[in-house]
Amino acid sequence: MASFQFFELKSGDAWVVYPMDPEFVKRACTPELIAACGPGAKMYGVAPYPEQYEGWDEMLPPSVGRSDLENGLYWVPQPLNAAMFLSPRSARTDSDRDWNAFKLK
């Protein structure tokens, strides 16, 4: 029941920002990053849409989050940082509860 925020960039690539499942965070996120977010903080992910592509892990700056090649996402402690980076570069945005609802133009 997550809410996904979709950003289709003017460059043609697209990204989705979404809240992470707390159990997945416990299993997959580094203890250092969890500690940096603060106790009990919600973690967010940013992933290329519809799938990973060559160089995706170098597209977003460290101020947005940390890339994780194994899990195919950026760990994002502050979703506002992701939105502030992606919004001005976007041709369009959308939101939905279904990851598959987004269509690239």
What does this structure look like?
The mean pLDDT is 89. The chain is of the alpha+beta class. The protein has a 6-stranded antiparallel beta sheet, with helices on one face. It has 3 helices and 6 strands. It is 21% helix and 30% strand.
The string of secondary-structure elements, in order, is: EEHHEEEHE
Average of pLDDT: 89
Overall SS class: alpha+beta
- Ranges where pLDDT stays below 50 over 5 or more residues in a row are none
Percent of residues in helical segments? 10-25%
Report on the biggest sheet: 6 strands, antiparallel
User: What's the total helix number?
Assistant: 3
| Content of β-strand | 25-35%
Note the gap between the termini. 25 Å
Instruction: Characterize the overall form.
Output: globular
Radius of gyration: 13 Å
How many DSSP-defined strands?
Answer: 6
Strand order in the sheet with the most strands: 4-5-3-2-1-6
Summarize the structure.
The chain is of the alpha+beta class. It is built from 3 helices and 6 strands, in the order ββααβββαβ.
List the helices and strands and how they pair.
Elements: E1 4-9, E2 14-19, H1 22-28, H2 31-37, E3 44-49, E4 66-68, E5 73-76, H3 79-86, E6 90-96
Antiparallel strand pairs: 1-2, 1-6, 2-3, 3-5, 4-5
Which key features would you list for this structure?
globular; alpha+beta; 105 residues; 21% helix; 3 helices; six-stranded antiparallel sheet
